[in-house]
Amino acid sequence: MIDFHVHQPRGNAYDAEAFVASMDALGVVLSVVFTYEGLLRPSPEANDSLAAWVGAAPERLVAFATVDPRDPHAAAEIERCVHVHGMCGVKLHPWLQGFSAHEPGLDLVCEAAASLRIPVLFHDGTPPFSTPLQLAALAERHPGTTVVLGHGGLHDLWREAAAAVLKTENVHLCMCATPGYAMRALVARCPLERLLFGTDAGLRPEPRQRYVALRVRQLDELGLDQRQRNAILTANPRRLLGDD
Fold first, then answer.
1. The whole model's pTM is what?
2. Strand order across the beta sheet in which 2-7 lies
3. Among 7, 25, 38, 145, which residue is least crowded by beta carbons within 10 Å?
4. What's residue 244's pLDDT?
5. What per-residue string of b and e applies to 102-126 under the rule 16 or more CB within 10 Å gives b?
């Protein structure tokens, strides 16, 4: 199982070794990790801190950079993170970082990601800035960029997330903090090759977090067949990470 939505613990409350032990207990072989502090205050230092944290277990943890799309150096910072740290994508949080999907700087971010052939994962499901169709409109402007809806619309906008995937071929959907009934509907409605799964691990100060185990259990309760499980939990994430 690949967990496509994990956060570096705030203040490095625990180390990568402790987190990998929690992954082992849940059957997670690889986690895609984002900074949390950097979403509040994007900076090269936040990306460097994330790189150091995942660097303790590079075979089990991969990192996504974050940037402020209003920063004129954002594209250069993405390139630095990929070439220097081996990061595999970009994570942005329009609601928390306070920008709209129509910000001009996002065009440069998407162009950089397309050139580097890495995905851009957005927090979604939270109005007014992080709705799935807003992000689908951005994806339509950049058909060469892989855009991932990081939460599958959460509780209120999962139907809109499904619509975004169905109308825009370069939009993928990560079921993360998406309720179980919505996950079931998304698997039934959306193209299988564009679905992912994540837990949002890392938001608590201990490495073993009960809500993470609950989300893995919700996944197991979907009754996915082997083809579906392989696509959502292995093949699709590995393709987006350039490891297919």
1. 0.97
2. 2-7, 30-34, 61-64
3. 25
4. 65
5. ebebbbbbbebbbebebbbbbbbbb
CATH of domain 2-240: 3.20.20.140
Rounded to 5°, angle at Cα 139 from 132 and 54: 80
Terminus-to-terminus CA distance in the chain, angstroms? 15
Cβ 23 vs Cβ 54: under 8 Å? no
Peptide bond into 128 cis (omega under 30): yes
How do residues 229-241 score in pLDDT, each as one tens digit? 999 999 999 999 9
- What span, in angstroms and rounded, lies between the C-alpha atoms of 15 and 56? 8
Rounded distance between C-alpha atoms, residue 203 and residue 6, angstroms:
9
Q: Where are the domains of the chain?
A: 2-240
